[in-house]
C-alpha cells in the first residue's frame, strides 16, 4: 500500500470535518476512465442546535446567591459526572468591592457547590467549610476564609485521573498576586475542601473569565484554554479578546498561553470572544468549545459552538449562536454564558450548563434575583453536535482505514422513508485505477437496512455482525444514505 491507512482503532469517530471521508478523484487524466473514483455525492456536514431546557438545575434561593447589582449567583459553572453523582460548581458571593478590592481581601467572589444523583433533584449541602455573614451553614467551598487573600473569580474544577489522592481534584481561577493579575490554582482530595497553591500557575496574566483546563491522557499533559487580548498592558485593556492555549507537564507551573482563536472577517467589527467553555468531546476523537461572543455595540453576549480534531485548529461550523442572547423578554436580553463540562442526564442525550442574564455586561456585573433564572441546560442528542447527512440520496466512502474490534456501531437517525446501507471493501490493493472490491458477504446488497432513531446500532450483513477477520487490515467503509444522518461510528 503506497500510504498509511487511517487507524480508527476502537475509538469513536465523529464527523466534524472531512478527514475520514475520501474526496474521490473524478475524471482520470487523459480520460481513460469516465467513472469517478470513490466520489462522494449528496452528503454534507451539518451542525445542530440544542434544545434549551427552561427548568433550571438550580436557582438563586440562598442569601449568598441574591443581592444587589454586584452580588449573587454568577455566570460561571462547572458540571461533570463523578462516580454515580453529578457535581455542579458555580460562582456566587459578594462583589460589592470588586473595583476597590485590595489583594488581601480579593473581590469576595465565592465558589458554591450542588450535587444530584439523577440530574433532576439537586441538593445544596450545608458543608460547614466557609463562614458567610457569621455562619458556616452554607454550601460555599472556596473564597472568604477558605482562601485568605484570594477569591474564586472565574473558577473551574476538574478531576485529574493522573494525580495522587490528595490532589485528585484541581481548580483554576483568576486573582491577584503581589499586585499583579495572575492565574491561580488549588487542589483537593474530595472536591470540597481545597488547599491553595501558593504561587501563581501563570504570573502577570489577565484571565478574568472561566478557564477550561483538563488532563489530556493522549498527551500525558495538562492543557488549558485561557482569555487573551490582541493588545494588552497591565490595568489597560485594548484590542479584542481572544482564546489562548497552553500545556504543561506540571500543573503548578504553566508557560504563557498563545493565541489559538480570534474573531475573523465574517464577524462584526465590534465582536470579542469573551469566554471559551472548552470541553473534551465525551469518549471521542474531538474537542468542543462554547464561547460567549460579546457584541460591544449591543452590550450582550451569545453562545457559539466551535469544534476541533486536535484541540489546536478550531472552526465554527455555525455562524449563528447555539444559545442566543440579546432578545427582549427572554431572560437573556443582557446576554448568556456557557459553563464548562458536559453531562448525560438522560440516555442518548448530553447537556451543557448555561446562565442567562437580564442585565447587560456593562449595565451591572450580576443581577440574578429572579427564581426563573439560575443555571439552565442546553441539550443535544448524544454526539449530536454535528452529523454526516444526506437530505435526499447520498453516498460516500471512507479513506483507507484499519480498526480494532469485532463489530461496527453507528449513532444514526433517519427521517420517515429513510435508510442507511453500509458496505465494507478490501483495500489491500486500493488505487484509483483498481477500486477496492466489496468484501464477500459485506456488500450493500448484503447489508440489513438501518432506519429510525438508533443511538447504538450494530451494523449487520445478512444478520451477521462479526468483523474480527478484518481487524487491523486495510478496508474502506462505504455508506449509502437516504434522508439520513450519521453522528458517529465506532468499532467495538
CATH class of the largest domain: Mainly Beta
The named CATH superfamily of the largest domain:
Glycosyl hydrolase domain, family 43
Low-confidence stretches: 95-106
Radius of gyration: 25 Å
- Structural class category: mainly beta
Number of domains: 2
**Proportion of residues in extended strands:** 35-45%
**Approximate shape:** elongated
Written account of the structure:
With 492 residues, this protein is mostly beta strands. It has 2 domains: 6-48 and 386-491, Jelly Rolls (Sandwich); 51-381, 5 Propeller (Tachylectin-2, Chain A), CATH 2.115.10.20. It is 0% helix and 42% strand. The chain is built from no helices and 31 strands. The protein has strands at 6-7, 13-14, 44-47, 51-58, 77-82, 85-93, 109-116, 140-142, 156-159, 169-177, 180-188, 194-196, 202-203, 212-216, 221-233, 236-248, 258-261, 271-273, 278-280, 287-289, 292-295, 300-303, 306-308, 335-343, 349-357, 375-381, 386-397, 401-402, 408-426, 453-458, 475-491. The strands form 8 sheets. Strands 2, 3, 27, 29, 30 and 31 form a 6-stranded antiparallel beta sheet that branches. Strands 9, 10, 11, 12 and 13 form a 5-stranded antiparallel beta sheet that branches. The two termini are 25 Å apart. Residues 95-106 have low confidence and may be disordered.
